[in-house]
Amino acid sequence: MDASVAEPFVLPDGDSNDIVPLRGLISRDGSMVTKSREEPARVSSEPLGNGPNEISSSVPALILSPGPDPFRLPLDTHDKPRRVVSAHWDSSLITVSMHGFIESLGMPNLVFQHNLRRPTAPTQESVDDACILHAGDTSVVVLAHAREEKQISYLTFQTSRIHKGTNFRVVDRPWNRTKKGGASVVSTMMQPLMFASGGYDHTVHIWNFSADFMGVSSTLLAIKHTSVIQSLLPIRDTSHKLISAGADCNVHLWDLSSERVVHTFKTSNSPYHAHKTESPFCTLLEVGHRDLQFELRDHRMVPEHPAERFGFFTTELHGRFIKGDTWSHFFASGSRNGAVRLWDLRNVREQLASVSCFSNDQVVQVLQTESDMLAFSKRGDVMTLKHA
User: What is the signed CA dihedral for 308, 366, 199, 298, rounded to 10 degrees?
Assistant: First the structure.
């Protein structure tokens, strides 16, 4: 079979004989409803299209927006996009590269607006992740650096006076020096002036900014991982929690009020990313598989660990620098062969659509904005997609 032709594939979790499939647990209003058990899913025999405008026969379709050649992010040689986040004040996007360059782009036409940071020693930046916080008229872009010194840095600016300049500060993240150094992931918390970080030293911290953003303090959480932290996700179900997913295949739910781990479960393989869904009790995980890359998990059913696994056939693992996005009851995933795939989380047995965005390049991030879906390639090309 041609490696570029993928078939949607879904199987229920084999951890338990009493697993309830999650395919129908996400309802239209976002609540969770239990459905009767169903037979294990089977492999679909319908191949996906490979051409730039070839899509599956399912609806709604996913199409490339008509227009000129793809927009390209301003990247230096050997640099690559690391994270793109939405700046909610005016629908702008903030792009962060591996070498620490930070730019703002105007939407919906992807117009270059501002160069927010141009580092003096780009090859020493080693940015693994980034997130953004907002407090009134001030925005803060936080960077995670895979290096031993100055593992956390942040850029502050006033959105109404962005042309007047920015302030950049570095932070010495406390870390376990018996392990590898470096921050691997950062995530904005739901609480004001707070973010979380995870590291190559297997530790998770919560950070609090001072009111003037001149200082930041950290608290080490008693979360036990035995490998690098790959994803952090704040949720609120019955209380505020932080999900931490590590390369050790452990996913922990830390309760902020009781300051303890209240749930733990194992994934079938290394989890790269955790995404929210319509239900606060259900999380989507991207994991290291060649055919079952995605898992839907219900936190409430511990220790039964009910999960529904789905995905498509591919020859290579995605890795943690390929990231999809969720919104409403949809999930869009990137890939190493340049395709974006769309799924309805209420029924993951069948893939809704697929479209090829880039030739001979990876889709390293998919981002849903207010009006469009954007696909970013490893070289920095950007394609706009729409539902049809």
Answer: -20
